[in-house]
Design brief:
The chain is of the alpha+beta class. It contains six helices and four strands; from the N terminus they run H-H-H-H-H-H-E-E-E-E. The protein is globular. It starts with a helix and ends with a strand. Keywords: Signal.
Length: 157
């Protein structure tokens, strides 16, 4: 019972770290869709160069997210926090990560594997979704990254 309480408390703390709401994402999507036709040609050129850099960034944060989950599974909690931004460092210590992971495995059985699912853009954050496979159930890990490719949020669904 104490471990379940801790998991719920930890998840509530983590929910406040990072990921903006869907309403905010919708507002930004509508704001960015109102551009002048005259700027479309220059925007297209800028978009294609941003996409190339964006692809590299996407690969980098997917790799960082997979490494983060792997470090948790291997008990490397100090190493796992190295890519945290300031807010996450203050909210989630290596000891708290250890307790969270142990409680997760107590409830779901041993960790088996992970599989990259998708990536979503939410305002100025990118959210990497990874399917976590455990002995008795599966979860979705959401690892949120800021513009500096630092972990700004971590959620377990």
């Amino acid at each position: 019972m104490k471990k379940l309480f801790f998991i719920l408390l930890a998840l509530l703390v983590l929910m406040g770290c990072g990921e903006p709401t869907g309403d905010q994402a919708s507002e930004n999507a509508t704001d960015s869709s109102t551009s002048d036709e005259q700027n479309e040609d220059t925007d297209d050129a800028a978009d294609s160069s941003e996409k190339n850099g964006s692809d590299e960034d996407t690969e980098e944060i997917v790799t960082l997210a997979e490494e983060f989950i792997g470090q948790l599974a291997n008990g490397e909690f100090e190493t796992a926090t190295q890519h945290f931004n300031g807010t996450m460092e203050a909210e989630l210590t290596p000891v708290a990560l250890d307790e969270l992971w142990v409680a997760l495995e107590d409830q779901l059985g041993g960790f088996i594997d992970q599989e990259y699912s998708s990536i979503e853009q939410v305002d100025d954050h990118q959210v990497v979704l990874i399917d976590g496979l455990f002995e008795s159930a599966d979860v979705v890990f959401s690892v949120t990254f800021d513009n500096n490719n630092q972990i700004a949020g971590f959620y377990i669904q």
